[in-house]
Amino acid sequence: MIEASGLTKRYGRTLAVDDLSFTVRPGRVTGFLGPNGAGKSTTMRLALGLDHPTSGAIHINGRPYRQLSHPLRAVGALLDPRWVHPNRSARAHLHWLAVAGGIPTSRIDEVLDLVGLSAVAGKRAGGYSLGMSQRLGIAAALLGDPEVLLFDEPANGLDPEGIHWIRTLLKNLAADGRTVFVSSHLLSEMANTADDLIVIGRGRLISQTTTAEFIERATKATVLVRTPQAERLRAVLTQQGCGVADQPDGALLVTGATGEQIGEAAAAHQVVLHELSPQRGSLEEAFMQLTGDAVEYAAQPAGAEDSDLLAAGR
Ligand SMILES: Nc1ncnc2c1ncn2[C@@H]1O[C@H](COP(=O)(O)OP(=O)(O)OP(=O)(O)O)[C@@H](O)[C@H]1O
């Protein structure tokens, strides 16, 4: 369990984390979402005792990180995959961590196997790709077989097969009863993996819900209607309090009623329908609607990557 209460971190004039309160429960994957610069990494660093809150607190299993008696066995974290000494092999790096953390060295081969690095475990980490470094970082996080796991953007640098692998791993870790807290600036990545979502923007909490509720609430349901009697239907629906917007091709986009309700209203007023199709906003739209005003860095459209465009709320 991870609990933040009134967590605040100020760097000079920047309020990186602003009065955040949330709970991350065991047995579930919790996605920690927000555009670039929202304060996700800062929150994770505060959780791991790598920085001090300006005010408020973040506790792991009821205590601040620094007061945990066996921190490596209680919490595993992947923050920056590139912090490994470049001349050290994956095996040597994990050996060093195991000895320092009082973890049996027999665990090294288990975690190397788990992350698929056994074949390259003797090679120097400086030659690893970003994806391999991510896997080594995840191996290090799992070394102490911890109950609580924090991963900062774990899919960074992974290819599609690697992304699928990390999704399955996160779900399995949660199914074991662990607390799994994973940051990402991409909602699409989290929507398939996370059971719960904590969404922040400019350091503040925007929403904490289950992923299903978030999607349901944030995507505004609309119904696309085609009829040769558009004016008549518009009058009927407007009278019932629906929103009706004209589409360039003559169709109507209706809000405030389900397809069923629109169909029944049309039948009651003898309006012929040619099409009645419920629309669902995309997850990215939902995320952008929620975080659009909370964007720290607005990317330039020219040459910007998709992820930057998303983060910039475009
Ligand atoms: N050590 C620091 N000194 C000064 N400002 C900092 C420091 N660390 C973070 N910040 C600022 O705090 C804010 C939040 O940054 P943070 O890295 O936590 O966001 P993030 O959500 O993790 O973003 P990203 O997705 O880009 O990693 C940003 O404005 C950042 O510039």
Description of the molecule:
This protein is of the alpha/beta class. The protein has 2 domains: 2-209, P-loop containing nucleotide triphosphate hydrolases (Rossmann fold, 3-Layer(aba) Sandwich), CATH 3.40.50.300; 220-279, 2-Layer Sandwich (Alpha-Beta Plaits). The protein is 35% helix and 25% strand. The chain has 12 helices and 13 strands. It has helices at residues 40-47, 71-74, 90-101, 107-114, 130-142, 160-175, 187-191, 211-218, 230-239, 259-268, 283-291, 306-311; strands at 2-11, 14-24, 28-33, 55-60, 75-78, 148-152, 179-184, 196-201, 204-210, 222-226, 243-246, 252-255, 275-279. The strands form 3 sheets. A 6-stranded mixed beta sheet has the order 5-6-7-3-8-9. Strands 11-12-10-13 form a 4-stranded antiparallel beta sheet, with helices on one face. The chain has a 3-stranded antiparallel beta sheet with strand order 2-1-4, covered by helices on one side. α3 crosses α4 and α4 crosses α5 (130-142). The two termini are 35 Å apart. The model is unreliable at 296-314 (pLDDT under 50). Adenosine-5'-triphosphate binds at residues 11, 14, 16, 34, 36-42, 185, 296.
Bound ligand species? adenosine-5'-triphosphate
**Alpha-beta classification:** alpha/beta
CATH structural architecture of the largest domain: 3-Layer(aba) Sandwich
Integer-rounded radius of gyration: 24 Å
The chain-level mean pLDDT equals 86
What is the share of helical residues?
A: 25-40%
Q: Sheet bearing the most strands, described?
A: 6 strands, mixed
What is the rounded distance between the termini?
35 Å
Can you say what the CATH homologous superfamily of the largest domain is? Answer: P-loop containing nucleotide triphosphate hydrolases
CATH topology-level name of the largest domain: Rossmann fold
Task: Categorize the overall geometry.
Answer: elongated
Our count of domains comes out at 2
CATH class category of the largest domain: Alpha Beta
| DSSP summary: helix tally | 12
